[in-house]
Amino acid sequence: MAPSASSSIDGGFGSGSRDIPPMSEMNTTPLIDVMLVLLIMFIITVPMQSHEVPMTLPTRPAAIEINPVRNDLAMASGGELSWNGKAISDAQLATTLGEVASYPSPPEVHFRPDPAARYERVDEVLAIAARSGVTGFGFVGNEKYAQVF
Question: Which of its termini does the chain have fewer beta carbons within 10 Å around, N or C?
Fold first, then answer.
């Protein structure tokens, strides 16, 4: 018997023995395409939210002015330092004294500790001055100490 036209070698849809069962899975490619288009539309249409967090950033301390002739370094009874009347920290003092020492003709630094200041604190400032290499560093106002003892 000759093969019929409906049952060809390529597996046609005839009444042959090689019938292919219908597909039971859903084609998800169009679904994914639609979802991607919706996602892109959502991303474009939703405005960007800006979150602002209040934050205070550290500011750079004001530069310490160095007088080219004479500078006054004072110490209060509590150990606080001031350079020409402006408050200064130990780190700023070390930096400032280093700059003073680098001058071609370094200015004088007059150190005025309060008579009630602790000696340990005065000694710390003297150590900072010694490490900085400043040469024109001296005590002024020593007459205050004569009345203390």
Answer: N
User: pTM of the entire structure?
Assistant: 0.55
How far is the C-alpha of 149 from the C-alpha of 139, rounded, in Å? 17
Q: List the structure tokens of 94.
A: 């070390």
Per the CB < 8 A criterion, the answer to whether 46 and 37 are in contact is no
DSSP tag of 5: T
pLDDT digits (tens, 9 = 90+) for 41-99: 888 887 766 667 788 887 776 678 888 889 999 999 999 999 998 999 999 999 899 88
CA-to-CA dists, residue 32 to 27, 28, 37, 40, angstroms = 10, 6, 9, 12
Q: 99-117 burial string, b = 16+ CB within 10 Å, else e?
A: ebbeeeebebbbbebbeeb
User: Distance (Å, rounded) from C-alpha 79 to C-alpha 116?
Assistant: 9
